[in-house]
Amino acid sequence: MANTKLEQMSDSVAKDPSMMTGAIPKKDWMDTPAIFKPGNYCYPAKQDMVEYLDKNLGSKGLFGEPRQWDVESDDWKLPENWKDIIIQGIKDRLDKFRSFKIFMDCCVRCGACADKCHFFLGTGDPKNMPVLRAELLRSIYRNEFTKAGKILGRLAGAREMTFGVLKEWFMYFYQCTECRRCSLFCPYGIDTAEITMMAREILHLVGVGTNWILEPASNSNRTGNHLGLQPHTFKENAEYLIDDIEEVTGLRLESLNFNRKGAEVLFVIPSADVFAEPGIYTFMGYLLLFDHIGLDYTISTYASEGGNFGSFTNNELMKKLNGKMYAEAKRLGVKWILGGECGHMWRVLHQYMDTMNGPADFLEVPKSPITGTVFENAASTKMVHISEFTADLIKHGKLKIDKSRNDHRVLTFHDSCNPARGMGLIDEPREIIEAVCNNFHEMPENTIREQTFCCGSGTGLNTGEIMDLRMRGGLPRANAVKHVHDKHGVNMLSCVCAIDRATLLALMEYWNPGVEVCGVSELVGNALIMDGEKERDSGLRFEPLAGMEG
Amino acid sequence: MKILPLLVEKETAIIKRWLKHVLSAFPADAVRFLEKQNDRFANPLGHNFSEGLTVLYRNLRSEEPGDVTATLEQLMKVRAVQAEDTPAESLAFIFTLKDIIRDECRKEWSPELDDEWPDFTARVDRLALQAFDLYMASRERLFQVRIRELQSGRNALTDNMKCPSAMLREDLANKKAGND
C-alpha cells in the first residue's frame, strides 16, 4: 500500500546532511560538520582590503595574512601556525576583557536563550541557538584554559581546535547579527553579541573575514563613509535632495551646510541617508525639521558616516572609525553632537565610545536650544539621538504639525535592535509617530520594544550572496509584520536604522508585498507645516497624499 | 463510508502525522521546539507549517473546496528559502499525504473507497501542481528582490560597490587611454 519510494524520499529529507548548514540531525553537534555551499556564506575579504587595513592599523596582524582564498575549498591558505594564533588570540582577549572571561565561564546552559534567536527561529538549526553558538567557542576555551576541559576533554564539553571548528565559527558567527535578543532572556546577563564580537576578532587574526565588512570599513577609514564618497560628492548628493524638497514644498532650504566652524551642533548621519532610497527621504525629513526650528547645525564631510563596520571586525578598528566624530566635533568647535537614525552607530556610541575615545570634555552637555531641555542621559557622550531631540520638541509644542499628511500611511514601528536594546530608545520614536500620524498599530508584544526581532541582516550580513539566509533570519520579523498587515492593513514599516531601511525593504518585498519602509524623520518631514510653503499634494517621495490621488 | 466523511473523522490524527512528517526534516533538537511552542510569533516556522497544513487538509477533504492560494503561497515562500532542500524535497510532503491517509484509514478501508481514491488523489495532485508554480514564483521573487536591491542603490549598503568618484577617475583614465 505505502509507496516505498516516497517513504524513502521522506526519510532522506530527515536524514541527509543539510545543504544550508551541514546539519545532520541524528548526530551530536560536535560531530556535525559545517558545509559551505553557494548561498550560505559571505564572500571572503579581498587581498587589497586586508593589506590596506593592516597597514593603516599599524601592521599588527589584526586582519591576518592578505591573500585570496576560497570558502568552499578545504585549503583556506591559513598560516602554518594558525592554531597558535587562535589560542593566543583567545588568551589575549581573556586577559584584556573581563566580560569575555565571565561569559566563557558562567553559562550554566539553562537554555533560556535557546529559542530566542531569529536565526534559530528561521532556520531551525540548533547551532543557531545562542547557547550552542557560544559553545562553539566555549568548547575550545575549556580545552585550552580550564582544568576540567584539559583532563576530561569531551566529557567536560571541551574539544581541540581543528579546521572543522574554524569552518563552524565562520559559518555560525556570521549567522548572528549581534542583536542581543538572547541576552535579554539570559539570567546571568551574558551578552552573546560580545561573544560573537570576540569570535570575529579571533577569526580576523587568521585572515578569515568577509569582503562586505572590510571594504566599507576601509572606505570609512579613508574618506569617512562606507562608499568612499569624497567630500564634494557627499555634498552634491545631499544638495540634490534640496531640489526634491523644493518640488514637494515649494521652499528652497538655505540652511544645509557642511564643515562650518562654530556651529552649535554637529549632525552625524548614516551615509546611506544621502544616497540610497528610502534613507534619502529620512534625510529630507531631518533638513525640514532643522529649518523649521532654525537649528544652528553643520554636517561634516569626514564624519559623514555614523555606521561603524569596524565594530564587526575588532575593537581597534571600531575605535579608530568612531574617533572621527569627536575629532570633527573638536575641529569644528561645536557644542554637542546630534546623531541621525542609525543602528550600530548607537550601539558603539552608547556602550563603547566613552571608554574608547572619551572623555569629550571639550564639548558641553547637550542642551536643546529650542526647548532648553538638558539631555542628562548624554552628559558623558555629549551626543543626542534625533528621536530624543524631536520627541522633546513635540512635547514642548515647538512643531507645527499636520498629521493628516501621513493619512495615506497605515504604520507600524520596528524597534531597531541597536537603539532599542543597545541604548534603550523605545518610547521616543513612538511619541513622534503618535504625534505625526493618525494610523499607527503596534506589532505583537513579544516582537517589539526590548523583545524586538532583528531584520536578519545586521552586522555585515546584509549582502546579496546570502539572500536566502537573510529571508530566513528575517522570518520572525516579517511574520509579525504580516499579522498587522493582514489585520489592520499596515502598509508602512517605520524604523530608526539605515541598515533596516535597506534590508527590511527586501524582506517586505519577499514576505509582505505592499508594505514599504521608512525612517521616522520622513514622517516628521511630511507632517511639518513650514512657513511659506505651498499646499502640499505629495509626500517626500512624491507619492500622492490621501485625497490627492486623482 | 464515503471518503470525505472518513477524512473529516480522521482529521486530527492525519494532520498531526502530516505535521510531524514535515517537521522531521529539521534537526531533532529543533523539532521539540517547533512542535511544542504554540505562540505563533515566538515560533513562526512551526506556526506557518501547522496552520498551513491544517488549511490545506481541510480544503482537500471539503465537499466544496475553496481557494487556498494564499496559504499555499506562504508555505511555499517558507520552503523556497530553506535552501538545504531541493525543489523535489520541498514539495514531497504534499505527495506523502496520500501515504499518511491510506495508513491512517487502513482499518476502515473498503472497496468502495478504492473507487473514490483516484478522484481524491487527483485533488492532491492538483494541489501539488499549484504548489510547484508557487514555489517557482517564490524563487523568482527572491531573485527579483536581489535585482531590485542592486538597481535601487540599496546594494551600496548591502554590497560593496565603487564610489562615484572612483568611477569618474576610471572613466577619465579610460578616455585618456583611448586618446593616447
Q: How are the strands of the biggest sheet of chain A laid out side by side?
A: 2-1-3-4
Average pLDDT confidence of chain A is: 93
Overall number of domains of chain A: 2
User: β content of chain B, as a range?
Assistant: under 5%
List the helices and strands and how they pair.
The complex is a heterodimer of chains A (550) and B (180).
Chain A (H helix, E strand, L loop, with lengths): L3 H12 L31 H10 L25 H15 L1 H8 L12 H6 L6 H16 L1 H6 L10 H10 L8 H5 L6 H14 L5 H13 L7 H19 L15 E4 L10 H15 L3 E3 L15 H18 L3 E4 L4 H14 L25 E3 H10 L15 E3 L3 H7 L3 H10 L30 H7 L1 H14 L3 E4 L2 H14 L4 E4 H8 L23
Parallel strand pairs in A: 1-2, 1-3, 3-4, 5-6, 6-7
Helix pairs in contact in A: 2-11, 3-4, 3-10, 4-10, 6-10, 12-13, 13-22, 14-15, 15-17, 16-18, 18-22
Chain B lengths: L2 H7 L1 H13 L4 H9 L7 H17 L8 H12 L6 H18 L6 H42 L2 H4 L5 H16 L1
Helix pairs in contact in B: 2-4, 2-6, 4-5, 5-7, 6-7
Walk me through this protein's architecture:
The complex is a heterodimer of chains A (550) and B (180). Chain A has 550 residues and is mainly α. Chain A has two domains: 192 residues, no CATH class; 312 residues, no CATH class. In chain A, helix 16 packs across helix 18 and helix 18 runs parallel beside helix 22. The radius of gyration of chain A is 24 Å and the shape is globular. Chain B is built from nine helices and no strands. The longest helix of chain B is centred in the last third of the chain and has 42 residues. Chain B has one domain. With 180 residues, chain B is mostly helical. Chain B is elongated, with a radius of gyration of 24 Å. Chain B starts with a helix and ends with a helix. Classes of the chains: A mainly alpha (550), B mainly alpha (180).
